[in-house]
Design a protein that fits this description.
The protein is mainly alpha-helical and 203 residues long. The chain has helices spanning 5-19, 26-33, 37-43, 47-58, 71-87, 92-97, 104-119, 124-146, 151-161, 167-172, 179-192. Helix 1 crosses helix 4 (47-58). The chain is flat, with a radius of gyration of 20 Å.
Amino acid sequence: MGLDRTTVVTAALELLDEAGLDKLTMRKVAERLGVQLNTVYWHASSKPRLLELMADTMLDGCADEPLPQPWEERARTLAGRYRAALLARRDGARVVAGTHVTEDHTLRFADALTGAFLSGGLAPAEAAWRTWALVYFTLGLVQEEQAGCGAGSRESLRQAAADGRYPALAVAVPHFGDFEDRFGHGVGLLVDGRTREPARRRD
């Protein structure tokens, strides 16, 4: 059976969605494709390499035009697309967080985000660090979101902080907001230093 790298990566992403990252193996990719294991290794020399290719494929389209012209809105849009791409795949943030990708889709996204900061007048060093900070922030937040750390974990934290030993947390926890709130607030800080009032407050 003749196949190419794209077919291998597509099969791996399908398995990721079905079973999750912990159960994804090169052998299962080969079984899905009906080929010998060494055929998969021909297109992806190791599981880490396969994960790099999967991570890059997940970002396909993230940097595509049209994008807003104002640099702040462009950066926010790119950040939103990045989060959406991670959320679109089961364990998507875990896959990307464990890789160091130098493939086209990833580089195009990084170039577009860094370019947005540069067009806002930031020095190259500052543009680089804001790009890294925004990527790391989004990866960490989405990992929590995909792990199911939602309202239940917030309620547990509120109960733990309610005994008087953690007064600052007791005051702040009701305002933590959901993942949309946290993402919007964090992106606002990282893009241009402005905060955003959470859309909804929870008691």
